[in-house]
Design brief:
Length: about 675
């Protein structure tokens, strides 16, 4: 040891000096003095030398040992204080050239080790915090996915979370479908007046981004040298991360751009762990949502999805003063086709026609299977003329398609289509569907394999009005209105006298309820004209014995709408049309054409529905036997509050009872 060696040397030197000095003092004392005096001088010299040696040793120890140890103590205390504050830069500066200096160096080395360990702990803690934060955000994302329905809304939240996760400036995502990776959607957190088009998004996929999705490799670039168009946010660095669903039906390229200091491998791992799990949940949610609104056989949207989309489109059209068109398509003679060639061949035909419909439409159009062999299409921001062109294109494609049987036989199928436009043809969802259905019926009535519009049905209905009826309706006073009743009722021998009798009952009930004279007159005219729409219904349906088909019932239920088409151009329309149009509504809201209920149904329509039902029940019909008056009254009582206004129904029953009592007297 260096200190021990130094002490040995000093000890030898002190001994040598002491012995030599004592020897010299002894001989001098003996020469100059005698006896005791010499001995005393020798003793004093020995004591003095010992004191001098001790003082020297004390000075040496203080300088070489005590002071350095004090410095070590003071510096170590200061170092501990700074370390507690996170500062590891203080050092013990002791230069003795021996073990004390080595001790100070060991303290400094220990602090350096502690500094390294603290840095490692800090890094591990930060990583743990990142993991905890990522897991918390993932849990939040999963909760949002389960509570939100709209895919694009979920996607936007996903982008905002990736942006927050890595503290980047922007995030964006490309969504692809199928193994061919066809681009279907592009979303970004960059705010813009108009969303980026798919053409613009496809242009971004040229170069490194496209290579990343092709090779399924993540791309991390911290120095971007490419130039960007004016107005495009500058990109300094980015990560491009390919994502794939387990079934390969959907894939994506996630991009995060512009992080201060650039992206690290840890950033890439964090982003992947979060994005991969969130994307799998997102894809699963989208698949479940798609199945909920998709027809299982054809892959088109189902009836529920169509109803929701139509409501949205009407709201959008009303809000932004837009228009759109509705096409209803029906496969001609499809029941016979199924009966002849089998349901498997029929299912293949439905799939083929569904594909034709999809191929002929824009991405913004909305095709759906309405039910059975019926399809329906929403064409946003499309006028009636444009919708007719689309319908004709689909009709031609279906007529030319090579359908085949199980045995390979070439088969022919055609479709008929009806077109109605919003808001020109209708003001409500239900009415628009009804108008498209009426146009479809006209197309079938004209021989099928054709396209008709709602305007065509109006023209057809007006064309069928006899000149004599037309002249009577043009008369503002409607003096010969009763003559029209004969024309209406002549369509079926079962309805002979029906309109006049309904009008008579209506007037009696109006008087009983003390209606004012203008209302009485409107009620009388409405009673006479309430079945005017029967002019447009084929006689074979009106006179058909037995049960009507669903299609035939739909045609019969359309007669108020046909009456509206006929009467729309004549005087007095505002006072009588509501009674005619809504006399088949029910008090409980289950009637047609609009499903009005209670007080929503015009008063005259509520009156007319009761007297018309009563007259129809006591008259013969091809589908059922006539009822006695007592049975008809019992039916009125039964329907009061559900089918009929209970107060008016009870008043009419009381009126009939009083009339019967008067007749008996």
């Amino acid at each position: 040891m260096k200190i021990k060696k130094k002490f040995n040397i000093i000890t030898l030197i002190i001994i040598a000096v002491t012995v030599s000095t004592q020897y010299a003092f002894y001989h001098l004392a003996m020469r100059w003095f005698e006896g005791k005096t010499a001995l005393i001088l020798c003793l004093v010299s020995c004591i003095s030398l010992a004191v001098i040696a001790l003082l020297f040793i004390r000075s040496y120890v203080t300088k070489k040992i005590v002071l350095p140890l004090k410095n070590i103590h003071a510096d170590s205390l200061s170092m501990i204080t700074e370390i507690s504050k996170g500062n590891f830069n203080n050092k013990i500066a002791v230069k003795t050239g021996d073990e004390i200096e080595e001790l100070a160096d060991n303290f400094n080395k220990m602090v350096s080790v502690l500094q390294g360990r603290a840095a490692m702990l800090k890094e591990a803690s930060e990583k743990e915090q990142h993991v905890i934060r990522a897991l918390a955000m993932l849990a939040e994302m999963m909760g949002f996915i389960t509570s939100e329905v709209k895919f694009e809304s979920i996607l936007q939240t996903f982008l905002e979370m990736t942006r927050s996760l890595l503290k980047v400036e922007h995030s964006g995502i490309f969504i692809f479908e199928g193994e061919s990776k066809e681009l279907k959607l592009f979303k970004t957190t960059i705010k813009s007046n108009a969303p980026a088009s798919l053409d613009c998004a496809n242009a971004m996929l040229t170069g490194p981004l496209g290579e990343a999705i092709k090779t399924s490799s993540a791309l991390r670039i911290n120095e971007v040298t490419a130039e960007f168009p004016s107005g495009h946010p500058a990109v300094k660095n980015f990560i491009a991360l390919p994502l794939f669903s387990s079934n390969n039906k959907m894939s994506a390229l996630l991009i995060t751009v512009n992080k201060n200091g650039g992206f690290t491998p840890d950033d890439e791992d964090t982003l992947f762990n979060f994005a991969f799990q969130a994307f799998q949940a997102l894809v699963l949610h989208e698949e479940i949502a798609r199945l909920a609104v998709t027809d299982g056989l054809t892959g088109l949207n189902n009836h529920r999805a169509f109803q929701e989309k139509l409501s949205e489109e009407i709201n959008r059209a009303e809000r932004y003063f837009k228009l759109f068109s509705l096409i209803m398509l029906d496969i001609d003679h499809f029941k016979s086709f199924n009966d002849t060639y089998g349901h498997q061949t029929g299912d293949r035909a439905l799939k083929a026609i569904s594909k034709i419909i999809r191929d002929e439409l824009r991405t913004v159009d909305f095709p759906a299977r309405y039910g059975g062999e019926e399809f329906i299409i929403i064409l946003p921001e499309t006028e009636c003329e444009g919708a007719v062109i689309v319908a004709e294109r689909i009709r031609n494609a279906v007529a030319e398609h090579p359908f085949t049987s199980e045995g390979g036989e070439r088969l022919l199928l055609t479709i008929s289509s009806g077109v109605a436009c919003y808001p020109d043809a209708a003001a409500s969802k239900e009415d628009l569907i009804k108008k498209a259905d009426q146009a479809l019926y006209l197309a079938k009535d004209r021989g099928r394999n054709t396209v008709c519009t709602y305007q065509d049905t109006i023209a057809e209905a007006i064309k069928e009005i006899p000149e004599e009826i037309d002249g009577i309706l043009k008369d503002p006073e409607l003096k010969d209105i009763e003559k029209i009743a004969k024309g209406i009722d002549s369509k079926s021998h079962y309805t002979k006298g029906h309109s006049i009798e309904v009008a008579a009952y209506a007037v009696m009930l109006g008087k009983y309820l003390h209606l004012e004279q203008p209302q009485m007159e409107s009620l009388r005219i409405a009673g006479i004209l309430h079945d005017l729409g029967n002019i447009g219904i084929p006689e074979h349906i009106l006179n058909k014995p037995g049960q009507l088909t669903q299609e035939e019932k739909s045609i019969i239920q359309g007669h108020p709408g046909l009456a509206e088409m006929v009467l729309i151009k004549y005087p007095l329309i505002e006072t009588i049309l509501p009674a005619i149009l809504y006399h088949h509504e029910r008090f409980d809201g289950k009637g047609y054409p609009l499903g009005l209920k209670g007080g929503e149904i015009p008063l005259l329509a509520r009156l007319l529905s009761i007297v018309e039902a009563y007259q129809a029940m006591i008259s013969p019909r091809p589908q059922r036997r006539r009822k006695t008056k007592e049975e008809a009254v019992a039916e009125l009582r039964k329907g009061a509050g559900s089918q009929f206004d209970p107060e008016i129904a009870n008043a009419f029953i009381k009126l009939l009872e009083e009339r019967n009592a008067g007749s008996e007297q």
